[in-house]
Amino acid sequence: MAIVWTSFPVAWLGFAGAAFAGFGYALVYPGFGMEAVARAPAASRGLAMGVYTAFFDLSLGVLSPMLGLVAHATGIGAIFLITALLGLFAVPIGVRLLASHHHQSERKPS
């Protein structure tokens, strides 16, 4: 999203930023969903995926209109900066999950 935010008036850079955002969304949603399911007990995996999806949908349903209000007040460019910053919040979560997964695989006997 930072690429889209800085791309004005270069159209191809905006398209590249949108493509990167789409690829990231396509990888992050199922990746975090797999982690949610893998960490749940076998009997509760369907519930874990349902809760993950519900909160994901809730975040889209709440933040999208809020970003619309921000765009109305400050201009559309601000929402790309905000979403880039919000996307950075997923990095420490992913690093923690990756470290936890790596730590668990070291404990398993071969």
TrEMBL record:
<keyword id="KW-0472">Membrane</keyword>
<protein>
    <submittedName>
        <fullName>MFS family permease</fullName>
    </submittedName>
</protein>
<keyword id="KW-0812">Transmembrane</keyword>
<feature type="transmembrane region" description="Helical">
    <location>
        <begin position="76"/>
        <end position="99"/>
    </location>
</feature>
<feature type="transmembrane region" description="Helical">
    <location>
        <begin position="49"/>
        <end position="70"/>
    </location>
</feature>
<keyword id="KW-1133">Transmembrane helix</keyword>
<dbReference type="InterPro" id="IPR036259">
    <property type="entry name" value="MFS_trans_sf"/>
</dbReference>
<feature type="transmembrane region" description="Helical">
    <location>
        <begin position="6"/>
        <end position="28"/>
    </location>
</feature>
